[in-house]
Amino acid sequence: MIPAPSNFNRRRYALFKTPAVPLLLFAVFSFSVPINCRGDESSTSFSVQEIRSLLNSITPYLPGQEVSAEVDIFGSTSMDALAHGWAGGFKKFHPKATVVISAEGSETAVDRLTKNPASIGMFSRPVSEEELEKLKLAGLENPAAVMVAREALGVFVNESNPLKSINREQFLTLFCVPDGETPSEPMVWSSFGASGGIANEPVEIIARGQNSGTQIFLQNYVFGGQVMREAKASYASNAKVVQALEEDKNAIGICGLKCGSHSLRLLGLQANDTIIPCDDHSVLMGRYPLIRPLTLVLDLGQTGARADANREFVRYALHQAGQSQSILAGFFPFDPPTLRGERAKLEQKSDGSDK
């Protein structure tokens, strides 16, 4: 029986939100392992069995009602492939429904939701109660944030970089400006243990753009609001980040664990000399620290055909078929107890009370 890592994740986000203890979780974890830290063949086989067992324990999707209206979903670029997978599966159950997808970044979804409350926003990060209150003040009647999948993030460098690992302090120094340091002060790779031709080369940070949920998640939840170093370049998608890392031998960046390529090296994570494998098993067991939820936001105060279609679409995402799509898109499903809790949010009346 796979434990419920979602509760572990909720505690983690609470810690990350507290500026006084940024990266408290990383006090337990420090990082060390090469790109093959994803685990050996037996570990991979075990992970496949775990995921199969987890999926089999998730309730199959049965339509609560037939819907035929348009579902308008927008936001996170990281969730674009997942949204298209959901759309294809959803239409098999609701052939008269139409799903329109627009991925321009998580942080564009807030403005679009206020203008189109009968829609669904995609956020590749947690959505706080404070943000939901702001949506209410902007005109939404009963906005709700529903976690629908999980993503593991990884720290990547070019394959030519000899560095195999970074510890917690190095992680902070690489991506945040330490107290008393000038933000523009250059870093070189020898400061982090790299030798050879790259030793005296500058560290070049490649990042996601400010409209991405990835960057907001890192800044607010992982680094606790610390000042992040200025990136050499920022991009709107994980694919562009990977391409930039492949082309720049001095580069380092954070993106989806499943987004790497054979031309990149995944820096491992280590705690007190204990290696944390960067593999599916570690993620499923709640051992891997860089995990974020993928979230859908909809206004439960809306009524009518489009509101019914929105609820049904999110219901689909929270059942077995929808969670299977999360795996195909390179993400991880939630455990059954968490999924039941998220589905319960959809049963609220328009005024926020239970049905």
TrEMBL record:
Pfam family, any one: PBP_like_2
Residue ranges of every copy of the PBP domain listed in the record: 67-318
Swiss-Prot/TrEMBL keywords: Signal
PANTHER family associated with the record: PERIPLASMIC PHOSPHATE BINDING COMPONENT OF PHOSPHATE ABC TRANSPORTER, PHOSPHATE-BINDING PROTEIN PSTS
Protein name (record): PBP superfamily domain protein
